[in-house]
Batch of 2 targets.
Target 1
Amino acid sequence: MRSGKVFVISGPSGVGKGTICSVLMRDYPELAATTVSVTTRAPRAGEIDGVHYYFRTNEEFDEMLKAGMFLETVDKYTHRYGTLYSEVERILDSGKNVILEIEMVGGLNVKKRIPESVLVFILPPSLEALTKRILSRGSETPEQIAVRQAQVEEEFDLSAGYEYFVVNDDLTDAVEKVRSIIIAEGLKGEGKEIKKQYFGRE
Ligand code: 5GP
């Protein structure tokens, strides 16, 4: 059985990457699973510890960092976020692909550590559509929204290091595109390897 790969899904705040990932997991549970990150930010309404994030204090985060538990970490919006090695391994061990729904600095760091990982950037249909979505979510203060909008341009600059670009105009279409990327990446191989597999020589 072909082993799974790590897929990083990034994109501006409010672009709908969370929804794309949840639909993908719901409709294709055998294909991939998402990791649960650690964060020092407070839970939003409805968020559950161990499901949406592992909500930890700054001190606890420091201890985990010191213990070498993170594949990558980032300081963002005055909070810290980190991907646990154990989460990635748990999913790979189950034979599935891993989806990391993380921001771009973290994504580029994952690529450095795991060169065969695949970076996918989700784009809004337009910048106006993005602002509208953030406002309609209603979970952030105007100051927080301003900070997040200022990050958008920076994120587009970082997207130069990404390999796939999916516009989230239509949810079903975006999910299918991400699924196609995962499937196609899983089929990648080297002619040399394939020949060896079939004929026992290169
Ligand atoms: P939020 O606070 O809205 O849940 O997430 C803020 C940003 O942090 C989002 O872009 C999200 O994808 C990103 N994020 C969540 N977990 C991680 C992580 O473990 N590492 C990195 N680098 N970014 C993360």
Target 2
Amino acid sequence: MQRYFIKEPLQDRLVIDDANQVHHMKHVMRMKKTDKIIVCDFEGTCFHMEIEAVTQTGIELKKLQALPNAKKSYHVTLAQSLIRKDHFELVFQKATELGADTIIPIETERTIIKLKDKSLDQKQKRWETIIQEASEQSHRNKLCHLETIMPLKSLDFKYYDEVFVAYEQEKTVSFKKALEHVKKDANILIIIGPEGGFSEQEIAFLNKQGVTSVSLGPRILRSETAAMFALSAISLMLEMSD
Ligand code: SAH
């Protein structure tokens, strides 16, 4: 069933009037009165709703029953280094599909892309739209949360139970082995480098903070592939292990 996220709390009756969502419902899905959809708020509460009217500017809805809470057995944050625009946007979409709870864009020593403050606001909005659409498409109950961009060294590790950095020169610790020790409900942070990888100093800094370097296998993956691989591996090991 089609799913839409709205900012407001879910009242018994409400109107969806976001232009993109209205367009999608009217012209892509060709929805009409009595059709049913799922509406979620930004806190992860979802309800089945019925369309009462399709008007010029909005879709009027009536609340039906609540959806059961689909709780994941872990929480994962992806700290993704800034990479070329289209690859970066792909990461937002795919990471959302693959269950990332939070994404933190990070700047590193070898970050090539320089974002001007002026365009940052606009970029952040575009990234949020990509995440919202991917959350709807992949039937998540909760939106993936997007943090504002920060330097690698400003990441605060104390929020996490497990922190990993994907490092192609790590030869002894595989991501699989590392994930075998992760406990249920763990709060995980995985850090992915930019096109040029992390510098030795950055890895030394991270290791000193207690961050575990992990290998994602024998091949060198592009940054965006590494992010998707890491999130898939986490899902496989922690969600599909029973
Ligand atoms: N420029 C580097 C590769 C960077 S790959 C080189 O040529 O050696 C971009 C990022 O993807 C890396 O910083 C790392 O976080 C991740 N990555 C890619 N392949 C990996 C692997 N096999 N193991 C661990 N991390 C990997």
